[in-house]
Design goal:
Structural class: mainly alpha
Strand content: under 5%
Radius of gyration: 27 Å
Helix content: 40-55%
Number of domains: 1
Strand order of the largest sheet: 1-2
Distance between the termini: 74 Å
Shape: globular
Largest sheet: 2 strands, parallel
Number of helices: 7
């Protein structure tokens, strides 16, 4: 019995003991917008990403998001602008200024036209949601991009949106849609 105990001890000591190898941690998932496309810079691409995200959260198809993107491109070149006519707008994060009446934000929506408060309108998420909410109440699927954008925005330049359709499509596609 003594021999067996010695043999068991020897065998036990001969096995290498290793701690389990940890599995490699996954690479971090990239966050934020993709690299800029269509001549945009990082700031514009960030605002484009907000428009895409809001459209997706609302369950909208790619075409609706392209309409929203082209609209914001025409209205503000995808910058969240304060307005010199609305001094309060400078109290909120902004990326430039405009002088078109009391229009503010990426969609250049007007507090005096009932779009919302200045505080709300200086948030790109809010403006995108307001735009899309009005868009989906229309027969937008059967309208040209320009007609749909104009029906929502009621711009002084109703035909100005069409020129942005190709770039808007490229931008929206860069977000995987």
């Amino acid at each position: 019995m003594a021999d067996r105990t010695t043999e068991e001890k020897t065998t036990s000591r001969s096995f290498e003991r290793t701690s389990p190898t940890p599995s490699p941690s996954p690479s971090p998932t990239p966050t934020g917008p993709p690299a800029p496309v269509a001549g945009l810079n990082v700031t514009q691409m960030k605002n484009a990403g907000i428009i895409v995200q809001v459209g997706q959260q609302m369950g909208l198809p790619k075409r609706a998001i392209i309409i929203g993107m082209a609209t914001a491109m025409q209205e503000s070149n995808l910058y969240n602008n304060a307005s010199e006519a609305v001094p309060e707008s400078f109290n909120y994060p902004h990326e430039g200024s405009s002088v078109d009446h009391d229009s503010v934000g990426v969609f250049q929506q007007r507090p005096s036209s009932g779009w919302g408060t200045v505080a709300d309108l200086m948030r790109p998420e809010y403006q995108a949601a307001k735009f899309f909410t009005k868009l989906i109440k229309l027969d937008w699927e059967n309208m040209s991009l320009t007609a749909a954008a104009q029906a929502v925005q009621i711009s002084a330049y109703p035909n100005a949106y069409a020129k942005h359709e190709s770039r808007a499509t490229q931008i929206v596609s860069a977000f995987g849609l």
